[in-house]
């Protein structure tokens, strides 16, 4: 017990001695010269400056070691702090999305302008109709569109696409807001057509040159339909006609003396082949249709035509 008291008393004495010494040194340090002048430098300031000179190389070495570590830490911290980069990435994606949408709208407008470009002043058209579904089976070739009786659509009306390329005709299945279209390639479809050379016909306007419209010039007329063998072509074309591969096929608006369901001059397709044999009474003509059912998106219905709508008589 006596040894412990002696140790505690000695510690207090040492602490008191250090405090007194510190006060004395601080008082001397403050009152002595601060080395601002050459001859005015106290002993404590002199020791301080000497220690600083001795430790200066050590501080430089420590800084050289610590600085790369600090920079590495900043890079690591920046790698984890990706909020700014993510915000920029989102902004870039939004901009790209808007650019893609603008491009898509521009293409859509160009396509719609192309659909409307071929309108003829002497036809009356129903509203632009969107193809909503195919309704074909192994025996029929038909589509459904999103216009109907409320839009002035009736059965047996011609349906066209683009620059008045014939797609088909409406059937009896006409509802208030939808209607069924029998395509030209359907086995039940038929239309009176005439054959003309490509150089003499403008599909956009439907105009024929005087040479082609002359009564003494005939490249052939007949009935367009798909036969029992599955060939889409023209029947009853006289052997004397000058029909050739590559000629255009357009609606004639009649079959003999009968007026049919289509106005004259609608583009149907191009002759793919012409053949005949000595025993044949008519030429066998196969036609490549101008319309492709798989590409149909929008179509137009011709609701009126004829002299009363402006067609030349």
Question: Can you tag this structure with a few keywords?
Answer:
313 residues; alpha+beta; 34% helix; 6-stranded antiparallel beta barrel; rod-shaped; 4 helices
TL;DR?
The chain is of the alpha+beta class. It has helices at 2-31, 43-80, 83-117, 210-213; strands at 34-37, 40-41, 123-125, 129-134, 142-145, 158-161, 165-174, 179-183, 190-196, 201-202, 207-208, 221-226, 232-238, 248-251, 254-255, 258-259, 267-275, 282-289, 298-305.
**Over the alpha carbons, how many angstroms does the gyration radius reach?**
48 Å
Helices, by number, come to: 4
Which class of the domain at 126-309 in CATH terms?
A: Mainly Beta
Strand content: 25-35%
Q: Kindly report the name of the CATH homologous superfamily of the domain at 126-309.
A: Rod shape-determining protein MreC, domain 1
Q: Please mark out the parts with pLDDT under 50 across 5 or more consecutive residues, or reply none.
A: 308-313
Please report the total strand number as a whole number: 19
H-E order: HEEHHEEEEEEEEEHEEEEEEEE
Shape by Cα distribution = rod-shaped
Based on the structure, what is the oligomeric state of the protein chains? single chain
Largest sheet: 6 strands, antiparallel, barrel
Classify the secondary structure makeup into a structural class.
Answer: alpha+beta
């Amino acid at each position: 017990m006596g040894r412990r008291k002696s140790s505690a008393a000695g510690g207090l004495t040492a602490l008191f001695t250090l405090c007194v010494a510190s006060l004395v040194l601080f008082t001397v340090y403050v009152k002595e010269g601060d080395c601002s002048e050459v001859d005015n430098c106290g002993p404590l300031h002199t020791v301080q400056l000497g220690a600083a000179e001795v430790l200066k190389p050590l501080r430089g070495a420590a800084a050289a070691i610590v600085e790369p570590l600090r920079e590495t830490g900043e890079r690591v911290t920046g790698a984890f702090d990706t909020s700014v980069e993510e915000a920029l990435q989102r902004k870039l994606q939004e901009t790209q999305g808007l650019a893609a949408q603008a491009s898509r709208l521009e293409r859509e407008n160009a396509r719609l302008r192309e659909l409307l470009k071929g309108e003829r002043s002497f036809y009356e058209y129903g509203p632009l109709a969107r193809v909503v579904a195919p309704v074909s089976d192994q025996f029929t070739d038909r589509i459904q569109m999103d216009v109907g009786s409320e839009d002035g659509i009736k059965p047996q009306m011609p349906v066209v696409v683009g620059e008045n390329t014939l797609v088909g005709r409406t059937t009896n299945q006409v509802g208030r807001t939808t209607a069924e279209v029998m395509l030209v390639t359907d086995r039940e479809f038929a239309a009176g057509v005439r054959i003309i050379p490509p150089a003499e016909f403008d599909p956009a306007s439907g105009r024929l040159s005087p040479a082609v419209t002359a009564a003494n010039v005939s490249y052939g007329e007949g009935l367009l339909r798909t036969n029992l063998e599955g060939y889409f072509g023209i029947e009853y074309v006289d052997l004397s006609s000058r029909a050739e591969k590559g000629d255009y096929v357009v609606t004639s608006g009649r079959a003999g003396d009968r007026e049919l369901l289509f106005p004259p001059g609608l583009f149907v397709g191009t002759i793919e082949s012409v053949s005949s044999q000595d025993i044949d009474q008519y030429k066998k003509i196969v036609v490549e249709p101008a319309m492709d059912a798989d590409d149909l998106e929008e179509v137009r219905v011709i609701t009126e035509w004829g002299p009363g709508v402006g067609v030349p008589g």
